[in-house]
């Protein structure tokens, strides 16, 4: 297929489908409709809680699906020792990040669900980086670990409101408000300094891991997360994507749903996160599942903002014919050009605004 005339998001669909299938991720087909209650119970997990609803013929309140992950979890089942690996290209219905209006958005991504191990985490994160590289040469993948802040907070405070405020400040890299929240909550100066220092840890993988060591000495459970990030670092260094990966602990997903590694992907020219994912074992548990899970989604509507050079021509060859030209002659000319991989437009007159590289004139007067 000639991808010259496809939009960035259309090219991405074909390339990413091939990438994911190459790692054994099988296609998942989602129903466009789900019970509204599924999304109400998990609204904080969604990118947006604004949902299009309607009542079906039986009086049941349904919603146009705003998310794929929840449907995958709902329709799966736990099987000991097995992993469900699925990928998707699905339309979801929610407020677009680019237009801020309800829109049918094509979303692509994958999920790995089951008895997960460190390889599965490494594979999914690597595929996230590969997805960004497939779309653009200029990209960055920022990785965090929910276990670090969670471990710190477990030893600092049990107050849910304080924990949420601290998490908000960390996600905003707002050390001023963080110090204030800690002071009001009676957090010790030492732990306040640790939290404020944690906010500023960002950069290449080796540098960040070195800076985390003091936290592991103060907060015992942090060492588990550091070990997982070290394993991920070691794996990523064997891939072509290592120099595009950064550790950034302001990447903060809802702690009620996510655990472990979380990440966001960025492309040059687009100010928003275009890829988002992570481990969501807590969501699985909330939905009655025992398995672990990790996945990500690439928001294809945002790719419309990618700069792309317009093709020099609308079509490679214009085949021109008239009423006297035999239909078979036109068909044969078009087939011959298509067999060469050229795009062809057969016309009885030259369209005013059509740009073409070459002209194949089958008219009798044109053949003389």
Give a short overview.
With 368 residues, the chain is an alpha/beta fold.
What is the strand arrangement across the widest sheet? 1-5-6-12-11-10-7-9-8
Q: What are the secondary-structure elements, in order, as H or E?
A: HEEHEEHEEHEHHHHEHHEEEHEEHEEH
Helix content: 25-40%
Structural Rg = 26 Å
What fraction of residues sit in β-strands? 15-25%
CATH architecture of the largest domain: 2-Layer Sandwich
Q: How many β-strand runs?
A: 15
> Could you say what the CATH topology of the largest domain is called?
BirA Bifunctional Protein, domain 2
Describe the main β-sheet briefly. Answer: 9 strands, mixed
pLDDT < 50 stretches: none
How many DSSP H or I helices? 13
Through-space gap between termini: 35 Å
CATH hierarchy, class of the largest domain: Alpha Beta
* CATH-level-4 superfamily name of the largest domain: Bira Bifunctional Protein, Domain 2
Structural class by helix and strand composition: alpha/beta
Roughly what is the average pLDDT, rounded to an integer? 88
Number of domains: 3
Structural features, described:
The chain is α/β, with parallel strands linked by helices and 368 residues long. It has helices spanning 8-21, 36-40, 69-74, 118-135, 146-156, 160-172, 175-185, 189-199, 205-218, 222-236, 281-286, 327-339, 364-367; strands at 26-27, 33-35, 53-55, 61-64, 83-95, 102-114, 139-145, 202-203, 245-248, 261-267, 275-279, 292-299, 315-320, 344-347, 356-361. It has three domains: 1-138 and 268-311, BirA Bifunctional Protein, domain 2, CATH 3.30.930; 141-244; 315-367. It is 38% helix and 24% strand. It has a nine-stranded mixed β-sheet with strand order 1-5-6-12-11-10-7-9-8. The protein has a three-stranded antiparallel β-sheet with strand order 2-4-3. Strands 14-13-15 form a three-stranded parallel β-sheet. Helix 4 crosses helix 10 and helix 5 (146-156) runs antiparallel to helix 10 (222-236).
């Amino acid at each position: 297929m000639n991808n010259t005339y496809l939009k960035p998001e259309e090219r991405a669909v074909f390339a990413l489908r091939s990438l994911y299938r190459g790692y054994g991720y099988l296609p998942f087909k989602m129903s466009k409709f789900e019970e509204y209650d599924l999304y109400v119970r998990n609204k904080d997990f969604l990118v947006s809680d604004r949902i299009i609803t309607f009542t079906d013929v039986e009086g049941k309140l349904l919603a146009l699906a705003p998310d794929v992950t929840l449907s995958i979890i709902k329709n799966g089942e736990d099987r000991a020792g097995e992993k469900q690996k699925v990928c998707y290209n699905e339309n979801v219905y929610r407020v677009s990040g680019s237009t801020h209006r309800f829109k049918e958005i094509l979303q692509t991504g994958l999920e790995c669900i089951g008895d997960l191990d460190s390889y599965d985490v490494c594979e999914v994160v690597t595929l996230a980086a590969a997805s960004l590289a497939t779309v653009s040469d200029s990209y960055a993948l920022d990785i965090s670990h929910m276990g670090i802040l969670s471990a710190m907070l477990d030893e600092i405070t049990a107050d849910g409101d304080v924990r949420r405020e601290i998490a908000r400040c960390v996600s905003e890299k707002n050390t001023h408000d963080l110090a204030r929240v800690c002071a009001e909550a009676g957090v010790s100066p030492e732990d306040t300094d640790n939290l404020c220092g944690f906010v500023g840890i960002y950069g290449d993988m080796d540098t960040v891991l070195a800076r985390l060591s003091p936290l592991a000495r103060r907060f015992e459970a942090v060492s588990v997360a550091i070990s997982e990030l070290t394993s991920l670092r070691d794996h990523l260094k064997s891939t072509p994507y290592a120099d595009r990966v950064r550790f950034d602990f302001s990447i903060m997903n809802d702690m009620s749903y996510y655990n472990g590694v979380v990440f966001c992907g960025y492309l040059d020219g687009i100010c928003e996160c275009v890829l988002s994912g992570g481990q969501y074992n807590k969501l699985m548990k909330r939905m009655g599942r025992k398995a672990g899970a990790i996945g990500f989604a690439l928001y294809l509507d945002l790719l419309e903002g990618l700069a792309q050079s317009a093709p020099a021509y609308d079509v490679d060859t214009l085949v021109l014919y008239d009423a006297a030209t035999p239909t078979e002659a036109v068909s044969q000319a078009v087939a011959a050009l298509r067999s060469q991989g050229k795009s062809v437009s057969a016309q009885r007159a030259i369209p005013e605004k059509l740009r073409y590289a070459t002209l194949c004139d089958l008219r009798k007067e044109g053949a003389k």
